[in-house]
Every structure is written in C-alpha cells, then in structure tokens.
Specification:
Elements: H1 6-26, E1 33-39, H2 43-59, E2 62-68, H3 74-85, E3 92-95, H4 105-111, H5 123-130, H6 139-150, E4 159-163, H7 170-178, E5 187-191, H8 198-203, E6 207-210
Parallel strand pairs: 1-2, 1-3, 4-5, 4-6
C-alpha cells in the first residue's frame, strides 16, 4: 500500500514555484501578487488566510491582506473587489469564506474578475472548466488532480465515487474526473448524504474521493482492496 502524502507533495511544489518566481525576477519581471480579503474574525478563516500570506512570502509572491469588520456592507465589499479588479499590480484575488449572512457569496464570486479569480468560483471559470477550456480551478479539486499526476495514478476507464456535491469540491471534482483528459476519463458516480446503499457504490469503486467535510465518514469496509 502506498500512502499519498499531500504535505510532502505541497512542499515539493512550493520549491518548484519559488524557483520559477526567482527566475522571473532575474528576467526583470514582477513578482506575482495575491490579494486576500478577510471579513470578520472567524478563527478558521484567520488561520487559512494566514497560511496563504505565509506561503506567498516563502515562494516569493507579493501579498496584500485586506481586512473588513463583519459589519461591512455588501456594497462596500463589492466596491473593493472592483477596485482590485482594476488594479494591474494585483494578479489574483481571494475573498475568504464564510461571509456574514447579509453578504451574498454569489454576488461576491460573480464580481471578482475571472482573470483574477484564483479560487475558480466565478461562473465563467466554472463554465470554462466544464468545457475543458483553460480556467482557474477550485483549489481542493485541483490539488487532488495534482496528487494523481505526482503519484501517476491511472484514472482512465476507472470507476470513481465522489462523496459530496458542493460547488467548491464535490461537483467540480466529478466534472474534472469525467473529462476527456488525464487525470480523467473516469466513470463517475456522485454520492451524498441522501444516497441509498452508499457502501455498495463505494465497493464498486476503483477511486473514492470523500469530499463532504466529515472526518471518518468513509469506513474501511467501504473500500475494496486495491482502491485509491
């Protein structure tokens, strides 16, 4: 059995990106610049955004963290996003979720320029992903694809079960694995909390991706020998 080591893979990719950025600087090009907007003081969001800022520093990116109180109006937040869209010095923008209840997540993602939407949540990027056209892809599905590539996991013709149907992980993951490309060309079954006989579906799978945010949900006896 081979353990897929996400942390080791991430460390290797960071070193590769750092070398690429260093080469860009030597060639007289500017460093990539990521902006992140954090609304409120959710503990998990603080940690997540802090990790992004730290990683930018490690690999040579410029970064800008913009903070708003949780009482910020939706209009003020959208105006700030439009300002960043128009700023040529900023290459990518992330608006950290969750957002306060009075702010529409859909309005936020639709306002971010598709060219700077590194989270891949703008509908234009989602549509381009579905068409197998160049697009920003949501981070978790993209990371899973990169693990398949790094570990040379064969996906062609395999039966794949994706447990979870969120727009951030489950749904894009199922589309990416069904596309006529590699990693891809899987026969994909999407399962979720309402799926009847989940264990039977999983036992038929060559690849299982648990994308429902519940640690330990997938039991060992749901997985056949040799499955990924």
């Amino acid at each position: 059995m081979v353990i897929i080591d996400g942390k080791a893979t991430a460390s290797a990719i960071k070193l590769e990106i750092a070398a690429e950025v260093a080469a860009m600087k030597l060639a007289g090009k500017k460093s990539p610049h990521l902006a992140a907007i954090l609304v409120g003081s959710d503990g998990a969001s603080e940690t997540y955004v802090g990790s992004k800022v730290k990683t930018c520093h490690e690999i040579g990116f410029d970064s800008t963290l913009i903070r708003f109180d949780s009482s910020v109006s939706e209009m003020e937040l959208l105006d700030k996003i439009r300002q960043i869209n128009a700023d040529p010095s900023i290459d990518g923008l992330i608006v950290q979720s969750p957002l306060p209840a009075h702010i529409s997540f859909s309005k936020v993602t639709e306002t971010i320029s598709p060219a700077k939407d590194v989270d891949g949540f703008n509908p234009i990027n989602s549509g381009r992903m579905m068409q197998n056209s160049p697009a920003f892809i949501a981070a978790t599905p993209k990371g899973i694809l990169m693990l398949f590539e790094r570990y040379k996991i064969d996906t062609v013709g395999k039966n794949c079960v994706v447990i979870g149907r969120s727009n951030i992980v489950g749904m894009p993951m199922s589309i990416l694995l069904a596309r006529n490309s590699w990693p891809g060309n899987c026969t994909v079954t999407i399962c979720h909390s309402k799926t009847v006989n989940l264990k039977e579906h999983c036992l038929k799978a060559d690849i299982i991706i648990a994308a429902l945010g519940k640690p330990g949900f997938l039991k060992a006896d749901f997985v056949k020998n040799g499955a990924v």
